[in-house]
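Many introductory courses stop at the sequence. We go one step further.
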Amino acid sequence: MEAEIPFEKQIELAETQGSLEDVSELISKLFAQNDDRALDLCLQLAMSEFGGITYKDDFQNIAALGALHWGTKGIARLGKAAIKTNSFRSISNATRLLSHISSKALSDFMYSRFNLKSVIELDLSSDKYKTEEWTKTAKETLIDVVKSVETEEKFPIGITNNLGFAINENAAEHVFAALIARWFNFSSTGLQAFLHLVNNTGRPEIEYQNFLKANPYILEPFHAQIWSKPKFGEDLIPDFLIRSMDNTYTVVEIEQADFPIMTKAGELSAKTTHAKRQAMDFRDWAINNNLYASKKFPGIYRPYCLVVIGREAELDEMQTQRLKQENESTQGILKIVGFDWLLNRARTTLDNLVNFGFDRHTFQEAVSE
């Protein structure tokens, strides 16, 4: 009896001399294997240039569809593979497929209609592909792909190519929505990295400063401008200054996530009190030197203050209530929050973008009940 050819060798043969039917047959064998190694090999086919001599779009897309066999894990891994490969073909194919899943239009995806063994086995007409689990994962992955690839390009051709491609109208709209998320710099992977930073102890303040500078949407999801370490006169330098879309300003003073917000007795800690005083000094300077400040920061007047320190999850019930009372007493002037508050707000904004921002035609008018 002939020994079974190893999958890696079969992949190599498929990439160099296989037909579309051969590739589909190989993908079906990977379905039967049904482990992470099989998924990796399926994704290798999806990202392959197949010799690079001719444009084998069919081969790549049939393999990309194969990732759906591994459920939502498969489409998330497909996105990561496209980001890592970062080629025109991988980006274009992944965003096109993801947008069809996210918009519940998988049956309109051209390659879903191919009469091939692996495609038939996927049963792409099933309603399971229209469930919230599938569509939400596809939206999140689509945003990550659109944000992370071709970062030097203002109009990434591997993505914008799909806006003019003959695809389902709702799928094209989802690509456009993901491009808007790219403009605002939203990213689930960025939020995961911030979560890791916030939950790790012993991090110096400069690490938080640098991370927020690189990911300003966490400070203010819909900012117009953000300055890092702007000069207020000669000696006053806040950590950040935010200009919001409505032209209001917020002065931000950050400390470390390890510093306590409150004492055990329910009073503001010394570090929090110091940061609060600094933030108010910046605000007072902007008010008292408004003519000069307005030349540098147009329209600034009585800026709001935000102090970011510690983790609110570490507060007990009494401390949480005292922080709430403290913020109510300075409402409209200053707010004290933990780093986890920033994370939760950014995550909620991204969740709402995923849940509602992709289907604007459904929410064009105020809801009447």
